[in-house]
Amino acid sequence: MMNQILPLVKENRKASHDIDPVFLNRWSPRSYKSDPIPEEVLYSVLEAARWAPSANNEQPWRFVLARSQEDKERFYSFIADANRVWCEKAPVLILAVAKTISSRGTHNRAYAFDTGAACGFLSLEASRQGLITHVMGGFDREKASEVLGIPDGYEPQVVIAIGYQGDKEVLPEALQEREKPSTRRELSETVMEGVFAEK
């Protein structure tokens, strides 16, 4: 459990306003140790996702876990090769799936937003627990639905690799160069008052 900014993060990120270190410490490394995640830690991370905000309390998110080698092999069949290069060492892969139909039988316009919020909560709690996460959009959604038996009315959103951070030297050279926390735009480029203005 961390309450201070990690050294590598401090070298690459600086908040303009006071925020909890967990927000800066969460980034997306690609180097994983294969060490298993204790059950209680993994489920604490999933518990955090459970409490994400949700329009009309629909809670459209669902998480399919892959921890056994057999289950991970299923995931590898639909994950892009560029991501497989590094994600195969992660002890847990999670497919976030969103229910697109509301409990009233109508299209839930907030399904992706709400599922994204749940994934954000999951990533922050993972960071707080000393884990790393990397969210991947590079996968075949149709194949994921087919391989995992996801029915109509549910849409795969992202794959999340989760585990403990490894040494960057185990990555291909091109990825080693990218293995550091990224920065973000300044608030002045993102926040506007009153009306929208392209920045």
Automatic annotation (TrEMBL):
Residues 176-199 are annotated as: Disordered. SUPFAM superfamilies: FMN-dependent nitroreductase-like. Pfam families: Nitroreductase. CDD domains: TdsD-like (cd02138). The keyword Oxidoreductase applies. InterPro entries: Nitroreductase (IPR029479), Nitroreductase-like (IPR000415). It comes from the Bacteria. Keywords: Oxidoreductase. The keyword Phosphoprotein does not apply. Residues 25-83, 85-164 form the Nitroreductase domain. Residues 176-188 have a biased composition (Basic and acidic residues). Belongs to the nitroreductase family. This is Nitroreductase family protein.
